[in-house]
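User: Design a sequence. Structure:
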């Protein structure tokens, strides 16, 4: 057989890998389908890099912005959230809502940064929770066990 001849049908191997595509915050991830064989999981990835809930990049970015903006206001660089919003070229209401994240229980912030929170938890959810609840109520609402 010549090298340019097409492969015969008997030499074709088809491999099927069941998977689902899921949204995790701002990202789309591929996860094994229900009942998928555990042998399909990559073995080369060290356990320390595997996360039950991957970090939500949009939630992480919102937290970073909130604490950065808070520091800028506290340091006197900006006199108000409205002044900061004008400088950052964003809506003042967005700055005010994002700053709510600085009112979260520190344990919740740590768990978000470690990727230990539910993928269903969004920045918008946390903004509302932070404004209306004490730290104990926040923990209860998010089901954080002390």
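Assistant: Done.
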């Amino acid at each position: 057989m010549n090298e340019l001849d097409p492969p015969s049908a008997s030499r074709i191997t088809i491999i099927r890998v069941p998977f689902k595509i899921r949204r995790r915050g701002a990202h789309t991830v591929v996860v094994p389908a229900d009942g998928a064989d555990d042998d399909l999981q990559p073995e080369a990835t060290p356990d320390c890099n595997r996360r039950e809930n991957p970090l939500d990049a949009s939630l992480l970015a919102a937290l970073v912005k909130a604490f950065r903006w808070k520091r800028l206001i506290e340091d006197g660089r900006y006199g108000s959230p409205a002044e900061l919003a004008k400088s950052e070229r964003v809506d003042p209401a967005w700055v005010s809502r994002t700053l709510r994240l600085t009112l979260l229980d520190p344990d919740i912030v740590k768990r978000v940064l470690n990727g230990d929170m539910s993928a269903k938890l969004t920045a918008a959810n946390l903004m509302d929770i932070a404004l209306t609840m004490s730290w104990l109520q926040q923990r209860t609402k998010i089901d954080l066990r002390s």
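The chain is about 40% helix and 10% strand. The two ends are 70 Å apart (CA to CA).
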